[in-house]
Amino acid sequence: MFTIRGPRLVGMQIRPRPLEMWRSAAQLVWTRWEDFLQAPPETRARAFAAYLSALDAEAAAAAEMALAPSTSRA
């Protein structure tokens, strides 16, 4: 049996951490909302659809963050 010592870096270079993913998704929600508020009438429906899509992405990121193992040590 082999023992590997050192920091756990599994997946760290491949995927952003769940908290970073959620923060990015939450920022996109605000950006899309602002886009919707400033959209001219002819593109308002499309801007609102983009906002709803951003909300869905934020919810998915929040769910993934909730399922991620905690990195804090007690």
Describe this structure in words.
This protein is mainly α. It has a domain at about 20-65. The protein contains two helices and no strands. The longest helix is centred in the C-terminal third of the chain and has 24 residues, at about 45-65. It is elongated. The model has no long low-confidence stretch (mean pLDDT about 80).
Would you summarize the structure shown here?
This protein is mainly α and 74 residues long. It has helices at residues 18-38, 44-67.
Overall geometric form: elongated
Query: How many β-strand stretches?
Result: 0
Order of helices and strands: HH
- The unreliable regions are none
- The pLDDT mean sits at 82
Largest sheet properties: none
Strand content: under 5%
Radius of gyration: 18 Å
Span between termini: 28 Å
The helicity comes to 55-70%
Count of helical regions: 2
Helix vs. strand class: mainly alpha
Question: Which SSEs are present, and which pair or pack?
Answer:
Elements (H helix, E strand, L loop, with lengths): L17 H21 L5 H24 L7
Helix pairs in contact: 1-2
Observed structural traits:
74 residues; mainly alpha; elongated
